Structure formats: structure tokens, C-alpha cells
Amino acid sequence: MRLPDTLLDEIRARLPLSEVVGRRVTWDRRKSQPTKGDFWACCPFHQEKSPSFHVDDRKGFYHCFGCGASGDHIRFVMETEGATFPEAVERLAGDAGVQMPARDAASEWREEVRRTLGDVVALADRFFQQTLRTPAGADARAYIERRGLSVDTVRTFGIGYAPAERDALKRHLAAEGIDEMMMVDAGLVIRPDDGRPGYDRFRNRLMIPIHDLKGRVVAFGGRALAEDQQPKYLNSPETALFSKRMLLFNAHRAREAARAAGSIVVVEGYLDAVAVYQAGIKGVVATLGTAFTEDQIQALWRLAPEPVICFDGDRAGIAAAHRAIDRILPLLESGKSFNFAFLPDGKDPDELIRSGGAERFVAELRASVPLNEVLFEREIAGARVDTPERRAALEKRFDELIGQIRDERVARGYRFAARVKLQEAMHRAGGEAGGRRPETRQGGGGRRGGRGGFAPPEAPSIALVSAPPAEPLELERLVLGLVVEYPALIDRHAEALAAAPLQNELHRRFRDALQAMSLEEADMAGEGAPAAADAPTRVDGQFFSLLGEVHGLEADGRRRGHRLRGRFPILAFHPSEDFVERCFIHFLGRLELKAIESDLDAAIAAAESDLTADDWERIQALQHAVVRRREDIAAEERNFSDEIRSIRNAYGSGSPGLDADTGSP
């Protein structure tokens, strides 16, 4: 039902935005002026210590000057509570005392059907839970014990048991006065076409209720308990209550945890989700046996900007990841993407947790791979670029894929990354054609069986570098590595990057080559030319040697990011691009500080032999600059500490054994 604009205007007029936002933040008394409808607070969307989040009651609008989040009443409820648009309007209307418009006759009838079916499903849910505790549920309880599920977990998820009898549920519901046709409409009973009596859809199965976002049971998933029983997992059919294309299992429990942590984990099965939840990672959901749909992708983004999808590391898991990417690609937006964790040895999350504990699963989450890397690996792996025709075919394929991305800012980043990947492939092909086996450096990420070619950082569970490097050479490589991983930084901070005081000549040449490639790509995109077409900038083997040093690409093409994550291990937790950008600016500031310190040392050394008044003024000015910069950098690092803690918590690092320091900028 379309809501009239007058309803939304009335809600905004009756309910001050500060009242809605005030439930989630604490207003800064020094900056806020309530009488003028002007409020300031620390942003609820990113961690900060200085209030940069502004609410203007007169305009009914909020904006964060730190992360850029902005919107009105409805947007705020949707973003902070993971609510859909109708849900947000309904909640705000109740708070504002505004009457929702009456539904038309058809809408009223559909709502009545939903309420009635909901009552039927709720009765079935109670029946399954009660049956689990009876003698008939002994095998189901034994299975629960083998799976290692606690009593609290069984109670939290409302797990039950459907007895093996043909019509046990049907008879129970009939005794409650439920018509058989209602049981069929609710997906609980199957009525044969030949006129035989209806029978229970779920028999001799462990029953897991599926809820909508309001926490109402709308369907069930049944796990077979007999070895020869097929299918192994059985879901309710599509009903007026349940659409598996739109729902995510456990989303109603996970959304608050996901909002607090800034991340959500996606697994394939509901029992996997139950196991992950029990292990302490509350922000977890599961798909319901379907390929990713647009509705599910958008629902996941309402929970977190970069969900981590867990797949088995076998061929089927890799294929599922590739199918998911094809669905996601057209929907990508600035700040919204996915990461992929490929689990080893054919294990699912439940098996991994039972064999290695929560820390083993969290280690795999930390080793998850960004969507763009999985995409490029899929296209580059096995591709031959040793002739102009083959290279053109690969370029065309990249053009077609990136052309699906509707967000031009994201598409441009992908085009730049594609150019780098294509030149990497050409460099490798040139080395192999010349009969030279590319040299492998120590410490590079290697391939691991069953992982689709993606390997995690070595010793990913705890052994993380404690802080970004302090040495100028390593700090320069960290800055350049971030530019390769996040090419949008080149455009947004072109002047600062060009002026960065890089001491190493090769680093300066590397930076200049990257900026030239970015400018050429922008020019070609503006002219409508193919992004991967031949361009003046051509880089030699030394470029790729240095790329390996600053970013982790090995000469034999193994995956990128190992050295970058080693220098700045918080990247293993996939922080937001906003966080990375602020860290990048911070690192540029540290480089500038080191340059000023070097100038100061040189000035003092020169003054030892002949000190003039001008020299003394210059030394004092440099000393003051060093003190100010050190104070600013120290303050920034303190501000980053809370954010880093929140990012780590998103991956369950509060679990026992996961207390490794990930380092602050």
C-alpha cells in the first residue's frame, strides 16, 4: 500500500527528530542549543569521541560531518534498527500518535489471512516444542546433544520435533478447531490430488522455526533424523506468510548485534547459523536454500555495509560464490560490498567450530576475501593474454562485467583495479614466454587446497602485527599499498598524495605511475572509451616487483594483500572505507611529521658549526611544528582506539583466545 505524503509530513511535524535520535545518542550539552532545535552528538554510525553528528529539528534532517551519514526520521529508524520502510513508518506513526490510513478491502482481507495463518503456525510451533520434550522426541534430543547445542540455545531458537506419525500435527490442530484447508495454506499439511486424506509435511524431523523481522514464526525448516530420509533439509513452501526469497533466517535476532558491531556473517544453513550464534557471534544469518536474491542483498546491506558470506572451500562453494557475485555486481554502491570466507577441508561452520572452537571460525572470517578479488581471480585464472586477440577478449569481458555496476564511483574503482590486474597478467605472461620462472619471495601468501586459490594471512588467529610500521620506508609502503587496495583514495586525495614526502625514489615513481594510470582511466571513462584499452602508461617489471613489496602480490600471481595486512592488520577485519580513508590521511600526516623531524635534525646539525638568528628562528619554528604534529597524531590515535575495538568485536574477537592486538593507526 502506498503511503500518502501527508502522512509522512504529519509524522515529521508531530515528532521532533531529536526525540527519535535521542534514544540512540547522548547530546553534547556544550554544542547543542535545544531552544533553537540544534543538537550535536557523537555519531551513532561510526565510533568517535568528538561530536560531529548534527540534528536540525527545524529542517527535520541529520548529518554527520565525519562519516557523511544523513537523512530524516524514517531513514534514521531504517539505518539504526534495520527496519523496512513500512516498518519504520508504522513505528514512527505510533510514537507520533498519527493514525495509519485504513487499508482497502483487499488489503484488509490479505492481512486477516496472514493473522489467521500466523495463529496456525504459532500453534504448530508450540506443538513441535512440546513434542521434543516427550518420549517420542528422544532421538531428536540425542541428535541435539551430538550437535553440541545447549539447553539455552534450544530454548532461544524454539527448536522442536515433528513426530514420525503420518498426521500427528494434523490431528493436534484439528483438535484446536483449525480447518484442514488452513493447515494446507500454512504449509503444514499436504493434501493429495487423488482425494486421499491429507498428511503432515514434516515427519520425524528436528524443527527449527523461521521468523520474520518482527519475530513472528512464519515457517519451519526440518532436518531429517533418519539416515535414509530425503531430503535432508526441508523448508516450508511459499505461503501468504513466507517468501524464502525475501527472508533471512535469524535476522530478527541478528540485526541489533549487526548494527552494534557493524558486520554480519552469512552462512548457508540454519543449523550453521545456530552453531555460530551459540559460539558467541550473534550477528549471523542464513539463506534459506535459494541463490541470493536482490531482496536478500538489500536486506543484508540494511544490517551491515559489508557482510561476510561463508562458503565451503570446495568447487561447489566457489561456484556458489561466483553465482552470488553475478547477482550482487549490478547492485554495488559506494560503501556497500561483500566479503567471502572460503572454509577449508570441506567443513561447514558448525563442523569448524566443533573441531577448532570459535577462534578457528573467526580466523577464517578474518581471512575473508573482498568481492572484487574473487571476481578478478575468477576472470584472470587460466586466462591467456599472450596475443593481442586474447588480451582484447579479456579486456572486453572486464568491460562487460564492470558495465553492470550502476554506481559510477564504484565502477571507476573497479576499472582502475582491472587495469592493474590486466597489466599484472601481461607481465606474468611475458615472463613465462621468455622461459623465466618468476621468483617467489619469502612470506607471500600461497595457494591452499580447497580454497579456490585464496590463502589467508599466515597464523591468522592470533599472530597479528601489533601496530603499523614506524620506519619511514615501511610507512611509505603502507600508504602506497592502501592506494592500490582502495583506488578511490587517489582521486579524493590526489594533491596530498602527490605532495607526500616519500624518501624512496622507487616509491615516488610507483606513486606517480599509479596517479598517471588513474588520470588516464578517468579521461577514457569521460570519453566513453573502454576502460581497459591501450593507454600511454605502460609499466615494466620493476613496477610489479615493487607492487609485491608494498601490497603483497607475488611474482607468480598469488593473491594480494598479505604484506599490506601484515603492516596494518586491522584490514583483516574489513573495516569501512570511511575508516580506511581516515587512517590513510593519518598515515600521510605521520609521513609529513617524519619529514619535519628530518628537517629539524638537519637544521640543528648545520647550526652546530654556524648558528645565525635566521637559523635559530627556523629551528624554533620546526620544533613547534613537531610538537603540534605529535600532539595531533597522538589525539587521533586515541580516537581510533574505540573504533578498532568495535571493528574487532564485529568478528567475535571478544571470544576466548582472540585478544590479539590488531594495532591502531
Automatic annotation (TrEMBL):
Binds 1 zinc ion per monomer. Its EC number is 2.7.7.101. It comes from Pseudoxanthobacter soli DSM 19599. GO terms for molecular function: DNA binding; DNA-directed RNA polymerase activity; zinc ion binding. Contains an N-terminal zinc-binding domain, a central core domain that contains the primase activity, and a C-terminal DnaB-binding domain. Its cofactor is Zn(2+). This is DNA primase. SUPFAM superfamilies: DNA primase core, Zinc beta-ribbon. It catalyses: ssDNA + n NTP = ssDNA/pppN(pN)n-1 hybrid + (n-1) diphosphate. Keywords: DNA replication, DNA-binding, DNA-directed RNA polymerase, Magnesium, Metal-binding, Nucleotidyltransferase, Primosome, Transcription, Transferase, Zinc, Zinc-finger. Monomer. Interacts with DnaB.
